[in-house]
Every structure is written in structure tokens, then in C-alpha cells.
């Protein structure tokens, strides 16, 4: 079989739309994952045994159930009880909840790594726990968690390919449609391999640069 990538030229615009939809979905899911992760991390470091138990159950469930099962539950299961959500929203919610389970471990580790002296200084200054947590503890924890959260984002990008199973025409879904029109899966999936590899590499590079910049700023503040 002769490799002929030129057959994909008429479909590049359609594939680009799928790539943009993937980027939009993952960006929203990352924000949702950080919010979920921070909330769960707060619960897991809480003095309340009930909150810690609820957070543990959430993380345990969504880290140990295949994502495709979670996705099908939200998209095909919830309508059975009267909850209808479109494919895009379902994808964002499912990725956010699943990603939040992983992000919570990252943010929790960042919270536990904070120097106790910083917390004691904040307590002595008379700050309330809410202000201390939102303005001191959480920002420091997120700063130190940039690299691991970048891994969560990369995982979201890769996992987003499963959203094609609920008829969402993100990058993988768009590629499947192109395959059905061209009958040239070899060329289509070569392009798909390259695009995903390039996308995750660029994200890794951006995360590394951001981490280096934040560490440099931190060193300048300390100096």
C-alpha cells in the first residue's frame, strides 16, 4: 500500500475543528479538575472525620472505575432518571470529576509540604482559617504542584479521545468520520498519532517553562 497523505488535504479543516474542540474540552476539564481537586484536598486535610471519609470514598471510586464506565453512566445512565446532558457538557463533567480525583492527591501533597512556620505566622497574625487557606495555603500548594498538575492535564488530553464513544466529534471522533469517508485509516491515524504526540509535548514544554518561571520568581522573593 502506498502512503498518500494528500488525500487528507480536503479534511484538514474538519480535523482542525476536532482539535479545537479537544482543546476547549480539556481546558474546561482542567479548570473543573483543579476546583474539584482543591475542594477534595481541603476535605482530606480537614479535622472533620466525616469530610475526610467522603473525600476518601470519592477518590477511591473515581480512581478505580474505568473512565469509559463513568462516561457511559453520565451519558446513557442519567437519562434513565430524567437527567439529560448533551455530549459536550457530559464530557467536560466526566473529565472534571475523574481528573479531580487525581488532582486532589497532587494538591493535598502540596498542602502537606508547606512549611509549618508559614501557617503558624499566619495564625499569629490573626487571619481567619478561610482567608489563610484561600490566600496563603492554597496559592503556595498550587505553585508547588504545577508539574504534577501538568501531568493531570496531559492525562485529560489523552483520555478525551474516549469522548468519541458518546458521539462527540473531538479530534479522535473527527478522525473516525474522515476514515469512514476516505477508507484510508492508515494515513488518518498516522496524522492522529503525530497530532496527539505534538500536543502533549507542547503541553509538557509549557508546564516546564511555567514551573521554571514560578521557581525563579520564588527565588527572587526569597532573595
TrEMBL record:
GO biological process: amino acid transport
Transmembrane spans: 20-43, 55-75, 81-103, 149-168, 188-210
Transmembrane helix as UniProt keyword: yes
Pfam families according to UniProt: BPD_transp_1 (PF00528)
Keywords for the protein's UniProt record, in alphabetical order: Amino-acid transport, Cell membrane, Membrane, Transmembrane, Transmembrane helix, Transport
Location(s), subcellular: Cell inner membrane; Cell membrane
GO CC terms, sorted: ATP-binding cassette (ABC) transporter complex
Membrane topology per record: Multi-pass membrane protein
The keyword Transport is assigned to this record: yes
Single GO term (MF): transmembrane transporter activity
ABC transmembrane type-1 domain location: 19-211
Protein purpose: Part of the binding-protein-dependent transport system for glutamine; probably responsible for the translocation of the substrate across the membrane.
Family: Belongs to the binding-protein-dependent transport system permease family. HisMQ subfamily.
Protein known as: Polar amino acid transport system permease protein/putative glutamine transport system permease protein
Gene of this entry: glnM_2
Amino acid at each position: 500500500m502506498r502512503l498518500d497523505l494528500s488525500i487528507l488535504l480536503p479534511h484538514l479543516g474538519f480535523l482542525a475543528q476536532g482539535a479545537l474542540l479537544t482543546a476547549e474540552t480539556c481546558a474546561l476539564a482542567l479548570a473543573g479538575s483543579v476546583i474539584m481537586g482543591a475542594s477534595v484536598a481541603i476535605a482530606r486535610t480537614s479535622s472533620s472525620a466525616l469530610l475526610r471519609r467522603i473525600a476518601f470514598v470519592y477518590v477511591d471510586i473515581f480512581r478505580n472505575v474505568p473512565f469509559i464506565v463513568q462516561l457511559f453512566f453520565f451519558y446513557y445512565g442519567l437519562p434513565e432518571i430524567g437527567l439529560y446532558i448533551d455530549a459536550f457538557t457530559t464530557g467536560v463533567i466526566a473529565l472534571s470529576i475523574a481528573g479531580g480525583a487525581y488532582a486532589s492527591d497532587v494538591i493535598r501533597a502540596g498542602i502537606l509540604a508547606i512549611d509549618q512556620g508559614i501557617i503558624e505566622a499566619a495564625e499569629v497574625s490573626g487571619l481567619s482559617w478561610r482567608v489563610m487557606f484561600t490566600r496563603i495555603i492554597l496559592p503556595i500548594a498550587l505553585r508547588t504542584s504545577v508539574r504534577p498538575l501538568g501531568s493531570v492535564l496531559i492525562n485529560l488530553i489523552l483520555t478525551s479521545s474516549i469522548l468519541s464513544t458518546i458521539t462527540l466529534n473531538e479530534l479522535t471522533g473527527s478522525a473516525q468520520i474522515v476514515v469512514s469517508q476516505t477508507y484510508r485509516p492508515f494515513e488518518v491515524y498516522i496524522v492522529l498519532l503525530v497530532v496527539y504526540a505534538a500536543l502533549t509535548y507542547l503541553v509538557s514544554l509549557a508546564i516546564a517553562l511555567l514551573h521554571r518561571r514560578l521557581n525563579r520568581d520564588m527565588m527572587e522573593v526569597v532573595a
